[in-house]
Queue: 2 jobs
Job 1
Amino acid sequence: MRRTCYCGEVTEMYLSKEVILEGWAHRTRDHGGLIFIDLRDREGIVQVVFDPAEIPRETFNTAKEVKSEYVLRIKGTVRKRPEGTENPKLKTGNVEVLAKEIEILNTSLPLPFKIEDEIDVSEEVRLRYRFLDLRRPEMQRKLILRHKAAQAVRKYLDSIGFIELETPFLTKSTPEGARDFLVPSRLNPGKFYALPQSPQLFKQIYMISGFDRYFQIVKCFRDEDLRADRQPEFTQIDLEMAFVEKEDVMEVTEGILKTIFSIIGIDIKTPFLRISYTEAIDTYGSDKPDLRIPWKMYTLTDILVDTEFKILREAIDEKNTIKALKVEGNTKFSRKDLDDTLAIAVNYGAKGLIWMRVSEGSVTSPIAKHLKEGEIKAIIERCEAKEGDTLFLVADKWEKACEILGNIRIELARRFNVIDEDRYEFLWVTDFPLLDWDEEEKRYVSVHHPFTSPMDEDIPLLDTDPLKVRAKAYDVVLNGVEIGGGSIRIHRQDIQEKIFKLLGIGDEEAKIKFGFLLEALQYGAPPHGGLALGFDRIIAIITKSPSIRDVIAFPKTQKGICLMTQAPSEVSEKQLKELFIQVIPPKR
RNA sequence: GGGGCCGUGGUGCAGACGGUUAGCACGCCGGCCUGUCACGUCGGAGGUCGCGGGUUCGAGUCCCGUCGGCCCCGCCA
């Protein structure tokens, strides 16, 4: 006996036909003299009827024993449901299967939660019983969509000449970037592999090897603290191209995203908007702005340059920037709203927060009396503020002031429900700085990574003003989420060495850590660049999942624990001994 | 490392200001039921109140610590 079709496929097409179905008992309704069993498999649910007039007593009694999630094989005939008993909620609702035979293939313990969407259960329980959670239609839809997206991306990239190539998981630990997961080497006592944070160096090597266009849908590993959108292992769509400029990489990326979104029936417009890092920070207070939020930020420093209001006077004298966020619309801020907004500001390091509400050509504000009429007018004009709009002002270092207001922008947009969840706003953020200054370590660090090419015209600045150097780097942003990023790489050994030097990586260290790359760059390395897309994040967005855990089959908790397997776990003395490893217990 | 929310039968929740039998819904078990589809109906079982300590005549409730889950800051080239 073999299955003839999936439960969810039994429609009028099968009328009067005999079918064999295999699946799980979704629900049973025992009316004493008549039993209904909803049988479920991955394609859906169909109602099976057991009528004692049609089958032997023994068969009927077997059906009586069935409980939730028993695994069944049922043979029966498809018939029209009696007039008036159709169920429009089911795809198969016009028909039912009149059972002739039933076989219980397996029983099931009572479940901790129901196998259905909209369950009211903690994520902790879902993760502990992930095998049941994944049985729910919602989770099956998400993982099947994930599969479809991966397949579509493969097909698309293959069609434009990309070659799917693998890279090692057991590889070399490199400085910079995230903390590595280490794997001890039994054959080389005291030495460790690292799991890759990304296939970065290998894909560059592939370019030097002449594969020209590489891609991979691949796991990456970073041992950092977890968030709703961060797991220690996650999946990237990773690609690299030779003989290209950033426009080429951006075009391919837009093609990939277009491909993925077409799966959910959304035709996204390309090319995406492009704005510079500086503009993104200045206007939206974020390098990954959510363009679904209409509110923007404005600079008021020049307007208030002669102010006598003490707090702002001091800010200007300290060469700080005064920024304003405009919250549009007649949004009513209660005392509590204002307090909460201040709390957000303080959380991001603000020393204070000024609010002003536009009203009858002037403003209502705790500081209104300290401002001249001309200043107020100029502020309203600069912000293009209308009646009822509320402005929030912060005075601080440019980047910090922007960042504080940027976070207020996001949190207030959520609170006042101004984000349209059905909109998808893509953009490119370009012209990132190449380097940042790390105050703790007292050295430059890469904003992107150490292999990112500086802009040609900024190369001289490497010697004079490194922080002014812009990178050939680009991030792709969707609805306030960084879904990908990449760069044109350095393909000349002299520049690469110079960057290492600036990063405080000495010749000796560079040779030890990246010797193979520096060497490869000397053997005809073509200009190249690429990008990686956060696959989990994209799938989370298109399935409207609040966390990437919902689109990862077996995710970890915030403490990095898999609640199903209880990994990580202790290992035996013997295992440690073989690896020449000794555990030092943490101090209590 | 830090801030916030949460932890009570299998699941989700309720338990004022500490008071004697810890309540509700769903699920589970048993009976009845031939057109249900969240079936109905009658009955029943099921609890270390996360864990440890303290205050008290008495702690699910108050205090301290600890463990776990979630959100966030730091961190994540």
Job 2
Amino acid sequence: MYYYEIYIENNRGIYTYKSKEKYEIGQWCIVNFINRYKMGLILAITEESKIQIDISKIKKIKEAAPVLSIPDNLMQLIKWIRNYYISDYYSVIKAVYPGALKLNYSKKAIYQKDFLENEYLIGEDNSENSLDEIKKFNDYMKKRKEVTIATLKKNFSSKIVEKAINEKVISIEKKVILNSKISKGEKKKSEIAEKEIILNDEQQKAVDTIKNSENQIFLLKGITGSGKTEIYINLIKESLKQGFGSIFLVPEISLTVQMIQRLEEEFHNEVAILHSKLTDKEKREEWTFIRNGEKKIVIGARSAIFAPVQNLKYIIVDEEHENTYKQENNPRYHVKNVAIKRAFLQNDNLEEDETVKSKKIKVILGSATPSFETYYQAQQGDIELVELTKRYKNAKLPKFEVIDLNETAENFSEKLLDKISQTLKKNEQAILILNRKAFSNLLKCKDCGNIPTCPNCSISLNYYKYDNQLKCHYCGYETQFNSTCDECGSHKMRQIGAGTEKIEEELAGLFPSARIVRVDSESIKTKQNYEKVYNDFKNHKYDIMLGTQIIAKGLDFSNVTLVGIINADIILNFPDFRASEKTFQLLTQASGRAGRGEKDGEVIIQTFNGENDVIKKTIESDYEGYYKNEMIIRKMLNYPPFGRIVILVISATEENLAKEKAQTLRKEIVKNIDTVVKLTTNNFISDAFKSPIYKINGRYRYQIFFKFERENILKIKKIIKKCAGKFQKTEKKLRITIDVDPINMM
DNA sequence: AGCACGCCGACT
DNA sequence: GTCGGCGTGCTC
């Protein structure tokens, strides 16, 4: 008899089942759980002696489930993520294995005997219709022997079905049915584009380095327009010819239209594109194709890192500095971390032979402005740095100009207005960026000073003029704006902090003949929307594209010669140690939109902080210099990449409860840690303090901030896990979230 | 203190 | 769905 540790679908616990059959780790099976058949995943095989519970309670596994198993390397990855991010099997497996692949359960009716027609008629409906129905029922059942209850109910009255059950004409059995019917659409023969990609010397050198190096992790640092994509495609293509697959990760599928079109052109039906909009059926098909090795290239956002690609060779994380690579709910993993772990896990498992080198997975992190944490690893030699310094087709870098907003009361400085007019006159295009949607950030009453705030969150409501609503960006709360102050009834509500909607209005007033398009998450709700706007702008159906940071990235328009940053300070003021790094990235990325074609580009940055080092280093295009300055501060304060951070958020609907319990939990953790690591400024636990966003969705939030030397972090995480777990068991009203290596500090 | 009752979470 | 643990509130 074998004993197995089993994860049961949609259940938080791990249970022991037994079987005479041998099951593999990662295989799915059917088990009886609370009188229901459920899918179970084999996590481990255990020895009888190690079982904690009463062995007589242990049930038998019913049978193997007829679904594809999770490959061994992904099972190891699941276990690692659960451990590293202080998560649980339930959340991690949900993230890794698409729900669409699961089994369904339906009740089946099994033929037992015929209805005795006369018997049925006594005291019942004896019309012609019902006699016919009885006959039909009998014939039906006799022929099919078994049929789902759902089908029966569709074809017969509920009365007759009920009667059939009562008189044991049919018996009911719960049957497991496979939800993963794959349509037998034949995969077409591979038709890889044979179009030759011409690489310049620098690109060719980069390709050769990545191919031939003994290293497994690479940082491809290349300024915008230096042609990283060609390098990716070249590597994927070459490895594909030898039967290897690749995973290509992008920050957000809907915003990377160009990249995806490009890869589809190159690889046609070898490509599976994974994204959240796929239907269940599509997800099943794609997963199965990938698992069976019929599709070898996967493109997708974050979760595509879990694609069961066969003979995986390259994992490419494009725009590796992007925040969207960090999942903001449990499991709070960072895809970069997971990608590297996946590569190492698999590489370590390889059989040592002469082909081992060619089978090793390589991870390529690509960016024009690498996150400082990645760049630090490259400096340390943990990651091999591959640099591209020439702009593709020798396009020049744009010219910068900084405008001090202290000198003007307007949203547009004279200089920026002048530059926009000139651009329009030359029949060229401009991109204007403001990292704030809505019409205004907040409203403030001139008479009493009241600021309308979300009732669920401690956040001022944003004002949207187009539908005259006040909206909360955190919980989605919306309310009609009636032009008066709720507190004092005054009509003088001042708009503070202009958003894209307002800028659009001003712009239309200033340049009445210009064709303007606004792009932010409010105006672009679907991928189709985005693609249309993108193509229309490219075809010069618009003169000015105005938008939030979503237009700062990756767009390639050769006729854009002016980029204007309306206000560079918005991110800079966030309570986040990465705020200035993020600002540097945004400004650099944005300026890369200018001058991608033959014409020279120009960038105008409007800011209240012209003297800030970030702005200075941006206009000097001095990544290295800014990195060095920032590292001095990080080192001094022991922030990543030096120290490690964990944030614990304790929330409750009752304000006092959240506060008190957060303090209690903190004390408990401090007590435990105190015996293991001496607390200093570098090994630090904050008080339980109000989160920067104190209230979200009706829950009051307190957080505890942990900052520790790297070598202590394992011990610390263990203690946090233990204490928080114990605490959560007794404190049901509290919600505790643990964020390891947080990106969002609010 | 002892017991009935009802709520809620666990169920291998 | 059903069992048991726990908190509450009533009674001795």
